[in-house]
Amino acid sequence: MENKQIATIGVFGGSGFYKFLDDVEEIRIETPYGMPSDSAFVGKIGPHKVAFIPRHGRNHTILPHLINYRANVWAMKSLGVERVISPCAAGSLQKHVEPGHFVICDQFVDWTDGRKSTFFEGPVVTHPSAAETYCPELRQLAVKTAKDLGITVHETGTVVVINGPRFSTKSESRFFTSQGWEVINMTAFPEAYLVKEMDMCPLNISLITDYDAGLVGDVPPVSHHAVIEVFNNNVANLKSLLFSMIENIPVERNNCECAFTKKNSQL
């Protein structure tokens, strides 16, 4: 893979978040896995060159179950990216996690079906650990930055990732809640796990837009319109968090093992 160190930080934008930086260079990337969701838009924040890719495309034309996650992640790696931040709109499965709150997830549960979820297809046998997928250094910095900005943030959380495009039934949602999981989303897997496979540092930032269908008896069914409305009302907080956090990310990776995922996974 060609690696020119065009950018060191990557950001995937989700529903309602299709543009991040203003003064950017647009780079179109072809990958061995097909075309990414969109071009990479590269600009600068503090000491870092930052690449932004809207995971649904700039006009939100790609549904969650049809995103080419491997192409998107490969594109980031080809630019020289070392850390990838993945903000996303998400639902809450617990009453104390309220719409408008942020959750810095530390675990995921894969409830998807049929997604291409690994780069490792032989001939070398490779078994990457997913026990601690998300980068501890980035998670700590995200939590501190959110608190400094006065954003209500949950320092840990498990996100269950459903296939989409449909939302959960009430029964499915009640089951997820009963497991103690906090967040539900359609894109957090395999994105973060693929980032980890590529020896980059993954970070999930879940912006809670709604209570999921089975949480409370009188909660109205979630709609895409409602999700986007809440997300739009909080996108300024998200951008403030990202800008402040990225400015303070250390240039060197010293406090995590993310860069050695592949090395530590081969038999």
Question: Would you state the CATH class?
Answer: Alpha Beta
Termini separation comes to: 22 Å
- Apparent shape: globular
Give the rounded overall mean pLDDT.
Answer: 92
- Largest sheet, if any? 11 strands, mixed
Uncertain spans: none
Number of domains: 1
Binned, the helix content reads 10-25%
**How many helix segments?**
5
What is the fold named in CATH at topology level? Answer: Rossmann fold
Look at the helices and sheets and give the structural class: alpha/beta
Strand content: 15-25%
- SSE order, as H and E? EEEEHEEEHEEHEHEH
For the record, what is the CATH homologous superfamily label?
Answer: Nucleoside phosphorylase domain
Structure description:
With 267 residues, the protein is an alpha/beta fold. The chain has one domain (9-265): Rossmann fold. It is built from five helices and eleven strands. Strands 1, 2, 3, 4, 5, 6, 7, 8, 9, 10 and 11 form an eleven-stranded mixed beta sheet that branches. α3 (170-178) links the parallel β9 and β10. The model has no long low-confidence stretch (mean pLDDT 92).
Write the layout of secondary structure elements.
Elements lengths: L8 E5 L11 E3 L12 E6 L2 E7 L14 H10 L4 E10 L9 E2 L3 E5 L24 H13 L4 E2 L3 E5 L7 H9 L4 E3 L2 H10 L3 E11 L12 H24 L20
Parallel strand pairs: 1-4, 1-5, 5-11, 6-8, 7-9, 9-10
Antiparallel strand pairs: 2-3, 3-4, 5-10, 6-11
